[in-house]
Structure of DUF4157 domain-containing protein:
Amino acid sequence: MRADRRTAPGARAPRAVAGVLCAAVLVCALLGAGPAAAVSPPDQLVTSLTSLTSLPVADAQTVDYSSGPYADRLCPTTPASGVACSLGRSLLATTQGAGHRDRAVEADATCERQAGLWVCFDVRSFLVQRGGTTYGDTFLSPDGQRDLGADLVAHESEHVRQWRLFGPDFSLMYLAEGVDPCGNYFEQQAGLAAGGYSCG
Ligand SMILES: [Zn+2]
């Protein structure tokens, strides 16, 4: 989720409107309109899992959610159940992103990787808010193909990480933080300025 930095300030949708759209998108995803049932090919899974350690981070260091307000929603730290939980959530984010990419390509969108982040451009879907939305491991943008820049890639990559860490409940947790990105814990951790938000 980000503000549309290519839009002139006077023409930009109010932050609240963008937030509501983002919330609506997450609700749709939660209700099953987002993830596809398709299963990713094994090589795609391996590629995505390998990228877990190569995604850029928002603020030069990995955000630590274990001391945040949603620490109890992370996978357990016990070896057996913790590993299974983490792997399951990562695979779900991968499958979710792959499903969105498949549908985007079928609708003539262009998908590529930028600095480890999957990005689809020219996505025409009600699931995508004005500036773009990340589902699982993929950022869906309504804009034409372009270089997102390091800041936005880092911001959206942190959202990918949030999906992987918190699993499918992430959408509800995000909504619980409210529609104003400036007051949203997950947007704050992803970096407000990097996401294009100007918060006083
Ligand atoms: Zn965001």
